[in-house]
Amino acid sequence: MDNFRNKEREGRTLGELKDTIQQTIRVRRLTLVLFLILALYFRFGAGLNFPLPLIFSPLMWGIITVPFSRLIDVQNSKKGLHNVHFGYFVVEVSILTYLIHIIGGVEWIGVAYYVFSILYANFFLPRKKAWTITFLTIAFFTGISYAEYAGLISHWTIFEGNSPLYKDSFYVTTTILAGGFGLYVTTAYTVQIFARLFRQKNESLRERESKLQKLWKELISAREEERSRIAKRLHDQLGQTLMGIKMKLDILDKELDDQRLKEVKDLVGEAISESRDLSHLLRPSALDELGLAPALRDLVENFEYSTDIDYLTELNLDREVSGEEERAILYRAAQELLNNAVKHADPDRIKVSLTNENSLLKLSVKDDGEGFDPERVVQESGLGLKGIRENINIAGGEFEIFSEKEEGTRAVIELPLD
User: Which domain holds residue 356?
Assistant: First the structure.
């Protein structure tokens, strides 16, 4: 069980990490689109004659995010995810180095162009990979700076009249030491500290969530066991005792033929019926023996028998809810929602539907009654609706109520089956 919980937690963490990385990629794409639009305007609209690679490089940078994004999506482990992300940072830093060279960034602290790559790498990647990207960035900038200084490659610039600072050895060395080592090593170290604190906090929250969920399951299980025990005693002991009394009264009735005895028999019969109903409400046998859908159908039939409301059911569940606790909270939620509709909504018709699409289960209770303000009622209500919301949230699902005055009410529960 602990191994399963660890895998579940790891899978959830991996999914969250993927989502966050995908968000950073989307931010990069938006930034590159804006950069590309500005570059096209200045090149062809304003007539600035700068190298066309300044347009093509960001375009290629944006294009490579597509395969990397897909590779990130298909990873099934953190190690694979970090390896793909590491490869992406290497490509990103390489393109940035080329862009710095094109626009003459070496002579006006182009090292600052790497700042977001350094921030992202040291936040998302493991420590060794993060430091590798940091020092690789410094190495790339150092290489391009000294290559231009030594005349190994041409110095380009999109600005006219600049002094040739790239030929100033003091300037180049100071930029590399202050900008590269000073800025990036400090930034990398600081970001890693905050990232570690963030991960520790998240891990602590996940641990508390896991303990809370475990406690919640134990409480649900204990509650249902107690209900089952009481229901069994009602059925097997009280029910049998009442039945024995009724049988003896039948014998006496034949001998005495007393009207008062008949009235007592009727009262005992009502007590037997009430004990059976109460036993069924406490723990329906269909929930354990047949599953959630048959138990809900049985529940709706009981409501239909005892009220003048028309009931519709749509119970199409091709996968059974495996968890005993989940079955219990869904059944109790439906029971509470039906009770509320009957007592407060004054409906003519109630529809109960239970369906699942892939791994998502959807339970809906809809009536054509008076309606209400959902926010106010949920806040002011007792434990019923609040209990449903709390249980569903802890189980990893969602609970929503949609209602308007004179427009009826629709309560929807969505719960992952896996």
Answer: 286-416
